[in-house]
Amino acid sequence: MTIIAIDFGTSNTVIAVRDADQERVVRLPGLSVRLDPLVEAVPTLVFVDSQQITIGEPFEPAAGNAGSPALFSQL
Fold first, then answer.
1. CA 16 to chain centre
2. Local mean pLDDT, 10-residue blocks, the chain (75 residues)
3. Do 8 and 44 meet the contact criterion of CB atoms below 8 Å apart?
4. Cβ pair 1, 11 in contact under 8 A
5. Euclidean distance between the first and the last CA atom of the chain, given in angstroms as a whole number
6. Maximum CA pair distance of the chain?
7. Strands, DSSP E only, in 1-75?
């Protein structure tokens, strides 16, 4: 049985998979950043502007160019 775990942290989100008694952290190309030799994480940031969604590190520059107040929310 495959088990998927998602940790929505305050700063980073990590996705891990356990399959056949082996664990691994999932890397999302273009989104993941390496925190240490074993952990790939996605910064816990999402920015929506019109029809474009920006996830992770590119969020900060995108938010700065929005031209309107930003809403920061914690779920």
1. 13
2. 88 88 87 83 76 65 53 51
3. yes
4. no
5. 29
6. 49
7. 3-8, 12-19, 22-25, 33-36, 39-43, 46-49, 52-55
